[in-house]
């Protein structure tokens, strides 16, 4: 018998497909020089601090540093950079002749102003790291840091560090427009559902061939799949396994599946009396059937996660760790040793309190709720009662900040700072942790070791140091890795030269071409 999620997805696909067919019949033909992209992402404002990720992907905004497919850094709006001997000062050389979408020219003063505003808003690192920004000339920017910080250039690749025209800011530096340097500029923005752009012909690099691009928020994976199937969209992102299977039989659509630097993790509040016990965390990890989740639910064998960072993350991934395997026997034994005894109702109790927890997850990664339901079942076999709640993704950082979060299933993006050391320095060096990282974890010895790595000038010791860090995190389990992330996208045969950016910085629209009609 098919599972409930599978039956539900099939029925929903039929309903949505019928609806879209009726809409297709009355939709006017699209411009031959325009494409439509759909994903689950909801741009809520112009501000890069909240929605920069989608404007970066739409190639509206750019940063000083760009990222290659293998995670190495390459020039962006800066042509190069170097540090002093102890990584406390970094000099960036700006690309000359760069125009903003309003026709103004990028220079060092504009870059300083843009970044000064950005540092006053939420960023994925400690903004106090930057003590001062000076401009020795019109094409050079110097950052003086409050500490020695080796991975600083990787921070400058994050979308929150986008370089914007001064005309983007109004009174009190509030965003009134988004005027970037990318190959496409905004013509209309209807948050949170729609972004329209047009080619920017004065782009400093190679301009795109497609004139107009529209982004439409598609809330359900099934809806997005049927949009590309019926010609309502040319590219759709973040498809679930059911949608992928449906599209694979369609000759007019190509499906692309890429392993990306993102890991599906269980976030744990270690201030909770249950989760503060390392034995309980180990038991919860051992009770997971990661192979069943990877092969049975996601239909991608081999993506079981046995550590924080996935393959392709250089020295921060340990290839020789054994694959993860479920052991309910060991999980039950650990829980019993921790004082949790199984009762007749199938739930464990200690001192009259049940082993019951809440888990939140969110909808814009469509597979998460299905995985959470599977975890609920798998943990129940060990005597753990799990209540799963679907929330907005903002509930995770909010719950981290106010302390109400107990557990959360999340797809943690390790591409927002492409150097894993930058992520570790941001999230793994204090009990505070990170909104998408550990919560109330106490390991002062490891915290100081990571900070020391960030200060060291020698690269020779990094592989051994990285292994030590990853092994410690694996042993203590402040987060529980579940699976590595396979991103599924679908592209209409109307387009050619599609490629997927594994660091999810760009939809690479400027590389696309619309096929000539036969």
Describe this entry's structure for a reader.
- α12 (about 420-425) crosses α13.
- This protein has a 10-stranded mixed sheet with strand order 8-9-10-1-11-19-12-18-16-17, sandwiched between helices.
- The longest helix has 23 residues, at about 5-25.
- The protein folds into 3 domains: about 1-45 and about 180-250 and about 495-518, 3-Layer(aba) Sandwich (D-Maltodextrin-Binding Protein, domain 2), CATH 3.40.190; about 60-175, Dipeptide-binding Protein, Domain 1 (Dipeptide-binding Protein, domain 1), CATH 3.90.76.10; about 260-485, Dipeptide-binding Protein, Domain 3 (Dipeptide-binding Protein, domain 3, Roll).
- Residues about 1-25 have low confidence and may be disordered.
- The chain is globular.
- The chain is built from 14 helices and 21 strands.
- It has helices spanning about 5-25, 50-55, 110-120, 150-155, 220-230, 240-250, 280-285, 290-295, 330-335, 370-380, 395-400, 420-425, 445-455, 460-475, and strands at about 35-40, 65, 75, 80-85, 90-95, 130-135, 140-145, 185-190, 195-200, 210-215, 235, 255-270, 340, 350, 355, 355-360, 385-390, 405-415, 480-490, 495, 515.
- β6 and β7 form a beta hairpin.
- By secondary structure, it is an alpha+beta fold.
- InterPro entries: Peptide/Ni-bd (IPR030678), SBP_5 (IPR039424), SBP_5_CS (IPR023765), SBP_5_dom (IPR000914).
- Keywords: Signal.
- One of its GO terms (molecular function) is peptide transmembrane transporter activity.
